[in-house]
Design goal:
It is built from 7 helices and 2 strands. The chain has 134 residues and is an all-alpha fold. A hairpin with a 5-residue loop joins β1 and β2.
């Protein structure tokens, strides 16, 4: 709505608002909100700065649960989901503590196939020629 009025100033604000069936008070409140963010948005900016600082102090490891715990310890009253949202909007993410390396089988290794040949010490032959486990 504001883009239309900004792009075509010769139309006049009141005419455009009348055509769109929007109250002029709504338009002017919206314009004021662009210049002066509400208390919640200002608090979000402050919290985002605190979150960035905590995340940087952790070496980039802490995710939203730990950041929330640190904020709570510092006496900041904020919800876990709000911390998650602010971290997502600031593109901040923690690092998973899982190991990156794990055991892999060597593709060149040959697998022992004693179980299929019937020569395993844990198998015995029965009289009918089939092998069974003891």
């Amino acid at each position: 709505m504001t883009a239309l009025v900004d792009e075509h100033p010769h139309l006049g604000v009141e005419c455009v608002l009348r055509e769109l069936s929007i109250a002029s008070s709504t338009y002017y409140r919206w314009r004021r909100a662009e210049r002066e963010p509400c208390e919640r948005r200002r608090r979000d900016v402050e919290l985002t700065e605190q979150i960035k600082e905590i995340h940087a102090d952790s070496g980039g490891i802490y995710g939203s649960p730990r950041v929330h715990a640190v904020l709570k310890r510092e006496g900041v009253h904020v919800g876990r989901k709000r911390v998650e949202r602010l971290m997502r909007e600031a593109e901040i993410a923690g690092i998973s503590p899982r190991r990156s390396a794990f055991t892999r089988r060597d593709p060149k290794a040959t697998l022992a196939r004693t179980w299929s040949s019937g020569t395993s010490p844990h198998r015995r032959r029965t009289g009918c020629g089939s092998s069974t486990s003891p």
